[in-house]
Amino acid sequence: MIIKKYYIEIISIIVGITIILSNIMVFPQFIPPDIFTFLEPMIGLVGAMIAIVPPVLIFYARYKESKEVESQFMIFITDFTEAIDSGMTLPMALRYCEKRDYSVLTPHIKSITAQVDWGIPFSEALKIFSKKIESVPVKRAITTIIETYKVGGKISDTLKAVGESLLEINKIKAERSVSVQSQILTSYLIFFVFIFILVILQRFLIPALTPTGDVTGMSTIGGGIIPEIFPPELFVNFIVVQGFFAGLATGKMSEGSVVAGVKHSIVLITIGYSIFTFASHFQIGFF
Rounded to a whole number, what is the largest CA-CA distance in the chain? Predict the structure, then answer.
């Protein structure tokens, strides 16, 4: 499954880059200039989205799975500790937990139980499990459990401490996420104000500074230099760059991870580009 995901990432990147390069070198030779002027930014955006979105979505899916593993691992630790405290042996406790539903963690629990039943040491089974997941907190917790198991400490006490530690970490993350909701809203508002300013510049200010401008005394200022300095493609680049980094910053503030901000980046870039393109090419409202 992981190999197939890598294939999807590679293929999407190759296809996206091919579209972008064709938009620069091939399409202008076959598409009439008037039509290409309208289609060029759209084709470029499509190529960029094809190259970026699938790998990002796959990467974000792994991130979400990692978070789900952390959540379910705390529940597993609690159940496992209760089973051991009730007098069950370690294999019996694992079989007890194997019958419960831990979402994405269930296959891993079944694998650990099967390995222990086959005679593989519990610590080795945990090491194998640790290599299969990408959650750093869970890896650290497993390392602690393994070391305690090796030195012969009371494993139930260690499991309780590990569970409490993971629970506290999750509480801190949740509190941080709630506390920055207003900042996330502010980030989105700032981005849309930025788009509004770009539209005003594109629809009113720049036309007024060109020889065809309708504003008296303004048409000769800058001559045809202004449009050359500020072509529509430049504004599109502004939107992509601003949306991408604003999204990453928003994700870092809300969830403590730059990867989590990718979804905000995709939303901002898509909405911002759509608004700018629609407002720049079509008369709508006061535009």
Answer: 91
- Length in residues, the chain: 287
- Write out pLDDT tens, residues 112-170: 889 988 988 888 888 888 888 877 888 888 888 888 777 766 777 777 787 777 778 77
Unique residue bearing structure tokens 């694992």? 94
Report CA-CA distances (Å) from 283 to 121, 132, 236: 71, 54, 19
Amino acid symbol at 34: D
Residues contacting residue 21 through CB under 8 Å, at least 6 positions apart: none
CATH fold for the domain made of 69-175: Receptor-associated Protein (1.20.81)
Which of 143, 140, 145, 142 shows the shortest CA–CA distance to 158? 145
User: Whole-structure pTM over 0.70, yes or no?
Assistant: no
Q: How far apart are CA 88 and CA 150, in angstroms?
A: 19
